[in-house]
Write the structure tokens for this entry.
Amino acid sequence: MINLKSAPLRRWRQLASAWLALIAIAAVFPAAAQSDGDAAVLERRVKATFLYKFLSYVEWPENALPKPNTPFTIAVIGDDALAAELAEFAGGRATEGRSVVVRKVNDPGEAASAHILFVARGENPRLSQLVKATQSKPVLIVTESDGALASGSMINFVVSGGRVRFEISVDAADRRQLKLSSRLLTVALNVRVGTP
Amino acid sequence: MAALSLFTSWAACAADPKVRDLADLSLEQLSNIEVTSVSRRAERLQDAAASIFVITADDIRRSGVSSLPEALRLAPNLQVARVSANSYAISARGFNNAIGNKLLVLIDGRTVYTPLFSGVFWDSQDVMLEDVERIEVISGPGATLWGANAVNGVINVITRPAGETQGTLLAAGGGNQTKGGAARYGGEMSSGGHYRVYGQYFDRANTEHANGTSVFDDWNSGRIGFRADWGGTARGFTMQGDAYRGELDQALPGTQRISGVNLLARWNRQLAENSSVRVQAYYDRTERTQPGAFAEHLDIFDLEFQHALRPAASHHLLWGGGYRYAFDRVDNSAALAFLPADRNLRWANVFVQDEIALAPNLDLTLGVKAESNVYTGVEWLPNARLAWKAAANHLLWGSVSRAARAPSRLDRDLFSPAKPPFLLAGGPNFQSEVSKVFELGYRSQPMSAVSYSITAFHHIYDRLRSLEPAPGGGLVIDNKIDGTGNGVEAWGSYQATQAWRLSAGLLELRQRLALRSDSLSTQGVAAEGNDPKHQWMLRSSLNLGRAYELDMTVRHVSALPSPLVPAYTAFDARLGWRVSRDLELSLTGQNLFGPAHIEFGNPATASLVERSVFLKALWRM
């Protein structure tokens, strides 16, 4: 017996009107100032922590850190909440003997001077543009979008088995004279070698 | 909500971890923090458009409970009532009954309800609680993913992978009602996988009637099992199995015996970046001999397949199917018979569900399952869910679903006595009970220390089971009750200080059931279930220094209407002492204050739930 067919039309009208009511409720609900896509709080914080930790597992060329007191700069594009939490933690803290500056950026030009550029999922459509804008610069580009390694990202976060993991493109890092430590490669979910 | 559920595999942190807490972890530890609930598709719990409560391993440990049904009391969206020493009535959103039939229960992916009455024999289902990773309790329908029977709720008991239960664990405890022990050993295989083996045994004492006489319901049960895991999420294989045996006293004419064995294999593989498959197969045998009533030997074979993929950036598609075959063999008694005594049952299903990102903060999930059974053919189980992430920690969701409770042997094949004239006869035309459900929920974590969830629901029930007068006398099972169930489920938690967490839960339920106008029943609607209008609980979890933990719970359940069971309030507490890194002692008291009370059944014949104390030692080596 196929119940769907025998169910009176009235019931489906009920379903439809319930949906309309839901959509109406959703429409009048006060929209929040900003949305951070669908990154959950803990996931975001784990990613923020990884970004900070990467500073210790990547070697930048000398010209990227000309002075002993040149601070590390982490630029974040598209995730203000992550930038704020990372800034709150890293502000005034030193790692590898250098202080850490966290900047929210929007303009690709601003990103070129950063040591790490994190491109949030919502900004992934601009990834190719950002890669191009920073092309000759030793910027470690970190993303959280499927397939981003193919577009020039060096480290891409993936949620796998309920955990935040990352995949690495060694060649993309090489092209920017960034040396990734073997520890980093060991922890990575997978390491891509060879030109994408 | 989030604070309650996020830290399932990361016991190191009691409070909500900030970046500064996480920064002390190594790269490896960071990549081992679980940030999602792995439901059918891994899904962030905060984003799930459903009323989900997660009981964590830590919640279970700190509650001091020693059985699975008692652990389920931790979920504010469940109704748990102890019927006797060996029997529980457990339900969500009403219809609570010792033979309740609208809740689907799974243990590590294995459906544990019996096709005999579409419910769970709670005396047969158990796990070693120390190895449980979490219990996901979904109130409301889950039929599209889980199939017929997931009408009012789904309980997913999930044990830890073998790799997370390495080494030796010994637990032993005793008290005025329960004595028992458990042992587990986990190791690594040369092939790279991990395994564990465990065994446990307990003995529970008789309860008493209100007049002081014994109910004769003492029982004991022993269980052994194993689990082995190879690989991980990209390519993994799991095998697990359990065997158990139990003896349950009953007044007369003799001891009930239960036993069973199950073996499950699960294989998962990542096919491409956005595509993964999972295949699972299991065999489950249960035996039950109840002198004076019936004996049953049931063999179930179950196979299921699912494929998750992303055909486009904004679509998460999940589809799959399953097939289940059961050989049910019943030895009838003079008083009770399933006719035919032997029946082979088959279920087959296919489902598809698409989660569509309409906007970065708006997800629409559409899904449908078609499931066939031998009694009514195909049931269609559709659902639509909309989740709007108003801001980072605020989720508003709504859903519309149709769920069905397919006939069980009890509805179609039960006769009493075994030979005509029957006083009670199975309904030859009994159809599926159907529920249409509308839900609206809001989940929020307005600040890191506070989280809460509120869900309002409206269920419309059609064709519920009724007892009609049979033409030749006696009663016949039919579908002539309709009704509605409305209510609210709410819970929240507040991390008052690093060491002190408060949590609360509330359930309000208003059910209106009525016989259809063409019903001639004189039995009314009382057999559907016996539910409270309100239920609430408050919990306090306090760490006293590094070595001591004090947990207290107050639970209140309002009166049940028919038969009338008075309201009760129970107070439970546990004091835990971490003597050393390897040894933990705890003292748990349940129903510490107030008189003994009954929780379910006819007050004259029901079991009293009395004060109990339990001292437990736990060694990890």
